[in-house]
Amino acid sequence: MKQNEKRSGPALGCMVLCLLLGASFMYAQNNFTISGKVTDQSNGETLFGTSIFLKGTDIGAITNEYGFYSISAPRGSYTLVFSYMGFNEITKEVVLDQNMTLDVELVEFSTQLDEVEVTADEPERAVLRKPEMSVSKLNIKTVKQMPVVLGEVDIIKSLQILPGVTSNGEGSSGFHVRGGAVDQNLVLLDEAIIYNTSHLLGFFSVFNADAVKDLKLYKGGIPARFGGRVSSVLDVRQKDGNSKNFEMTGGIGAISSRLALEGPMFKDRGSFLVAGRGSYAHLFLKLAGEDNSASFYDLNLKTNYNLNKNNRLYLSGYFGRDLFDIGGSFSSSYGNASGNLRWNHIFNDRLFSNLSLIYSNYDYELNINDFEFDWVSSIQNYNIKYDLKYYFNDAFKLDFGASTIKYVFDPGQIKPTSPTSAINELQLDEKRALESAVYINAEHKLTDNLTAQYGIRFSHFNRMGGQPLNNYLDDRPLVYNSSLRIYERQDPIGETVYSKSERIETFSNFEPRVSLAYQLNGLSSVKAGYSRAAQYIHLLSNTSAVTPIDVWTPSGKYIKPQLSDQFALGYFRNFKDKEYSMEVETFYKTVDNRIDYIDGSDLIGNNTIEREVLSGESRAYGLEVLLRKNEGAFTGWVAYTLAKSEQRTPGGNAGGPGINNGDWYSTPYDRTHDISVTGAYQLNEKWSFGTNAIFQTGRPVTYPNGQYQYEGVSIASYSDRNADRLPAYYRLDVSATYRPNRKPNNRWKGEWVFGIYNVFNRKNAASISFGQNLETGANEATRTAIFGIVPSVTYNFKF
Amino acid sequence: MKPFYIIYICLLFVGVSCTDVIEVDVPEAPPRLTIEASLDWEQGTSGSDQTILLSTSTPYFAEQKIAPVLGASVRVTNEDSGAEFIFEDQNNGEYTTSNFIPVIGDTYALEVIYNDERYTATETLVPVSDIVDVFQSTEGGEDKDALEVNVTFDDPADIENYYFLRFKSDGDLFPELYYIKDEFIDGNEFTIYYEKIEDEDDAIKEFQPGETVDIAFYGISKQYHDYLRLLVDQYENSGSPFSPTPVPLVGNCVNIDNPNTIAYGYFRVTEAIKTSYTIE
């Protein structure tokens, strides 16, 4: 146990107290329960986040990820109101004199937008009563309305126009949340961990929008059921598949084509979804020669089977791959694969459970044909998870569960591909680890106006043996050389071989999570939250943007787990009968044990990563404002983020001042200002329009401060890291969607999406490099811009 | 070995992007002494003639790229034998001697006194491995139609070796620099190729028959290899999102009187093989 336990001790005590208090609410009352499932009438998909409340009371609930809800109330007659964004509200009269089940189907709005009339809380507008804060939920329909580059609907890019979320520039993988790094995001696709969210180095995301039902991003206030990453959780759920009719959706675009099939199976006891997407090779690279190609494809699969009223099985899978071939001399492929078997079991009308068995894998291979060798690396995990939700009463709900993840890291192996290869075979040490956690979390309505959510997660990490580990003099793999002022790698003084039954190192952490919502009046509320999170695995990446060939490494003897503390405070308000809403949040986040890389670190094919890194800290703080127009023919939002993200790495036991002289410096994903405006306008039944405008402070970079001659070339000298900035980024996109006349009886529904990305053809600098002109010898700065103006046409269909 | 991954990522990156030269305001650091002290003992020569170059750094976009240092005193001592070699100021930034005695495995110390500040460095003379073959081909490299020059050498087994390989074509302004360590190729015969791929934007032309390429192959120390690796990587790739944040390059010439300003450049002592190849 580490010292963190001491700090968390009082918090745990507080938790227990609160739970006891909570229990006192459960005095014998003459309460009955209504529970059930909410689904979409057209296709049988369960609806996550449907709001249900008893008219005239404060009693309500929201459906969980599986569409399940449970409400308890005293005996009486009630009107239940079910509402979900984009669907017609439904009311049901009930006489509550016993526990009852009520499954409800909601009907989607027709295209007539004037009919929109929703009165209850909805997922996308400011939710006042729930303590949930720092959460962005996007409906896949909203995502599909946004204009995107080359017509590829991309949920990661859509997230990046919300406050607090940024990319590291066009063509870079992943996303950054509240000044956090890419590896600090937990990305789940049907609960399976996805290690790389990008296709083609970040130009597109791995999520096929046709297979996705909804997504939720937790920027802070991460519920106790999630753990393992310190910055955010992106929870993406795949569609279950239409359980009523066979349906085919698809699209033909400039970059890729998609096709999805779904329908009922098992004699209406279940449904399935199969979705595939593939890009066209060669299209992407305009490099000289036809020998080069780059392409990607992915497959999504989901099926579910209803055993009986209280038991349902889900099986889902994902397989995605990127393929590159550069003139036959290099080729490469990489991708995620995951599979997941889940069992939903409803014990009774108050206790819902889900058991998941999950496998996921990320691997890449580089085939370096010129030198006749292959380079492969992978991370695999097996995960078992049991989550339960208990609805005590209207004022008290409890989530609890446990999970354990077994990791196998293969940091890399070299395989010569011919007997004449000059490269020797090499296997870097495989690493194993077990990450386990138990959690409990309560949602507790303390008074009519004050609701609390509090919980704790206890996580444990076991870095397992089965590998040798270097020993260094005084346990110092790096030592500061005070005359040369650099960190020098030390030679090992021996090694310890750990057997598979031994532990190299273990860590445990208590991770308290608390948030409070105080409703000021019917229109506004304030919320505050604190959360602590531990992260036991680290992505080794010393480049400005992460790449597909970065390698994950577990905590252990030399690398400690990252620990974050985040405080957030927010003000939420609805205006004009909820037509408009405003969310303002501030946050302050610190991360301990963030690894940083010494000058000249070499991470590829390195068995002794401890000789390349030092342990530091990072901090980020900021203000986020989101103003939304939720209703009417014109909808959209303005998002503004003012933030700072920095890191500092002292020398620690290696001595010396540390990296960058031990001074704070901007992380590559620090953006002072980030403004985005998104709008959608429905002109009539046939035409709708969308637009995005984005402005961002440029990425922090390091410019040269001088030059000198060495070996016949001009060498740039540099000083402080990331002390300069690229020029600001600005872009405007527009799109138009045309839905031709549809005969009511015709099942074929088509639509054309026309888009223009970067209308003003602004050459936004993705990078500026410094070098010598090969003809004149003069030093010059070269700007690389990724996308200029990009028009696109996509045809989507549904049958 | 070259970081193949950077090449491969950059190729993709280049595939969709466009580049142009722009004006950028860069910070300006005070000038600093640069010591290019490369004592290379070419195989088959006595190695007695040696030159050390001293200059100061200039602003990044300065038109005058080289600011020679005059009036410094430069001395190299063989720490094993005690022999001392004084380098004469040629008043153009060059300091020369004609009586240097290279001994493989011996350690040499450099002392430069400039502006009343004393800079020192030590380095051991590292032997080089044999070049087995130098030849041209088209089928290797990234482009199967373009010519490349290949250098094959024998790496001795079971010892750590580090090499520096330099190509310079008479058709080009600048050399091509390769750093090599034997970690993955220990004990093997290994071939490095130098191929130029046509690029109109960067004014790169493929090798043409008649073009002569000077080749120099050095045995170097591990510390110099690490210095050179960072130097070459930053020279070739700095600024791309897929390259590490550029950092100060720290050589081995320490300023005894002002420890904050380590001189730019490096004091190396190597055994070298020099040859040239004319494309047919």
Number of strands of chain B: 17
- Continuous helix count of chain B: 2
* Percentage of residues in DSSP E strands of chain B: 35-45%
Largest sheet of chain B: 13 strands, mixed
Please tag this protein with its features.
heterodimer; A: 799 residues; mainly beta; 22-stranded antiparallel beta barrel; five-stranded mixed sheet; 53 strands; 4% helix; 56% strand; disordered N terminus; B: 280 residues; Immunoglobulin-like; 13-stranded mixed sheet; three-stranded antiparallel sheet; 2 helices; 42% strand; globular
Commentary on this structure:
The complex is a heterodimer of chains A (799) and B (280). Chain A is mainly β and 799 residues long. In chain A, strand 31 (478-481) and strand 32 (486-489) form a beta hairpin. The termini of chain A are far apart. Chain B has a domain at 33-127 and 249-271: Immunoglobulin-like (Sandwich), CATH 2.60.40. Chain B has helices at 4-16, 222-237; strands spanning 18-22, 33-42, 50-56, 67-68, 73-78, 84-89, 94-97, 107-114, 117-124, 131-137, 148-154, 162-169, 176-181, 189-195, 212-220, 254-255, 264-278. In chain B, the strands form 2 sheets. In chain B, strands 2, 3, 4, 5, 6, 7, 8, 9, 12, 13, 15, 16 and 17 form a 13-stranded mixed beta sheet that branches. In chain B, strands 10-11-14 form a 3-stranded antiparallel beta sheet, with no helix packed on it. In chain B, a hairpin with a 5-residue loop joins strand 5 (73-78) and strand 6 (84-89). The interface between A and B is large, with 96 and 95 residues.
Can I get a quick summary?
The complex is a heterodimer of chains A (799) and B (280). Chain A is mainly β and 799 residues long.
What is the topological layout?
The complex is a heterodimer of chains A (799) and B (280).
Chain A: H1 4-24, E1 31-40, E2 51-54, E3 60-62, E4 68-74, E5 76-83, E6 90-96, E7 100-101, E8 104-106, E9 135-139, H2 140-145, H3 155-159, E10 165-166, E11 176-177, E12 185-189, E13 192-193, E14 198-199, E15 204-205, E16 212-218, E17 232-238, E18 247-252, E19 256-265, E20 270-279, E21 293-308, E22 311-326, E23 330-348, E24 351-368, E25 373-393, E26 396-416, E27 426-427, E28 431-445, E29 450-464, E30 467-471, E31 478-481, E32 486-489, E33 494-498, E34 503-519, E35 524-535, E36 537-540, E37 551-554, E38 562-575, E39 580-597, E40 613-629, E41 634-648, E42 665-666, E43 673-682, E44 687-696, E45 700-701, E46 706-710, E47 713-717, E48 724-725, E49 729-738, E50 749-757, E51 765-772, E52 779-785, E53 790-798
Parallel strand pairs in A: 1-7, 1-8, 12-17
Antiparallel strand pairs in A: 1-4, 2-3, 2-5, 5-6, 9-16, 10-11, 12-13, 14-15, 16-17, 18-19, 18-53, 19-20, 20-21, 21-22, 22-23, 23-24, 24-25, 25-26, 26-27, 26-28, 28-29, 29-34, 30-33, 31-32, 34-35, 35-38, 36-37, 38-39, 39-40, 40-41, 41-42, 41-43, 43-44, 44-49, 45-48, 46-47, 49-50, 50-53, 51-52
Chain B: H1 4-16, E1 18-22, E2 33-42, E3 50-56, E4 67-68, E5 73-78, E6 84-89, E7 94-97, E8 107-114, E9 117-124, E10 131-137, E11 148-154, E12 162-169, E13 176-181, E14 189-195, E15 212-220, H2 222-237, E16 254-255, E17 264-278
Parallel strand pairs in B: 2-17
Antiparallel strand pairs in B: 2-3, 3-4, 3-7, 5-6, 5-8, 6-7, 8-9, 9-16, 10-11, 11-14, 12-13, 12-15, 15-17
